[in-house]
């Protein structure tokens, strides 16, 4: 999607390894989350994002992910429209995360 900031798996993992403060949001449905999540991610199904936006810090680096990156890109676009400048989509979603051999928690 045009104008959506993205981060790839290796960059995100580097940030996490460095201890960079990142709010990681899983915007998939609950059934999908049960199949595995990125460690330390928060559960926030995409349809709940507008109602929970007030819980977010617009200055905090926030990375959204879903299965492949499409739904999370929508969430990033919405947050950007609401004034969030430090929000990113995980390119390729949890599929790319798993394909790169990164850990999942269930």
From TrEMBL:
Domain Rhodanese: 18-106
Gene3D superfamilies linked to this entry: Rhodanese-like domain
Pfam families tied to this protein: Rhodanese (PF00581)
Entry-linked PROSITE patterns: RHODANESE_3
PANTHER family: FAD-DEPENDENT OXIDOREDUCTASE, SULFURTRANSFERASE YTWF-RELATED
Protein name per its UniProtKB record: Rhodanese domain-containing protein
């Amino acid at each position: 999607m045009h104008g959506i900031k993205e981060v790839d798996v290796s960059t995100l993992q580097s940030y996490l390894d460095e201890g960079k403060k990142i709010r990681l949001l899983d915007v998939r449905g609950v059934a999908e989350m049960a199949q595995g999540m990125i460690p330390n991610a928060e559960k926030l199904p995409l349809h709940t994002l507008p109602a929970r936006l007030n819980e977010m810090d617009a200055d905090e680096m926030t990375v959204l992910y879903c299965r492949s990156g499409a739904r999370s890109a929508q969430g990033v676009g919405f947050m950007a429209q609401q004034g969030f400048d430090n929000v990113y989509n995980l390119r390729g979603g949890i599929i790319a995360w798993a394909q790169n051999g990164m850990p999942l928690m269930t």
